[in-house]
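Give me the fold.
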Amino acid sequence: MLTRMQPNRLAIIGIVLLSPAIAYFINYVSEAAFILRMFWLGGPEGSEMLGNLVSALLLPQIAASLILIPGVLLCRHVIHKHGYNPPWFHRTLRFYCVILIVMLPLYSVVGVVLALLTRAPPMAPART
């Protein structure tokens, strides 16, 4: 099925499958701000509370990373099998790569995979 579709449509589908990363980034920033504020104003009194905070930050990242895997695989298919890497696709993957690398620790793995995909230079625009 993937070989019958045009690469530009596959690229758009891959970008749409990666779009939850924006919501994950917003959620990550708000959670990190809450945890920092908690420690700044008099942090948790026990290591148990600290463990709960860390697990509350890491467990959603595991689930969200699994949600992003189909988008990463589809983008990889588009770049490597079809050789399709126009500038708009390249820039969008770079954007997702940066916001995922910023979100330590588990999202960074997905971000590094996207960084490896965007190592190839973008395609030159078609001349008419």
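Residues 18-117 form one domain.
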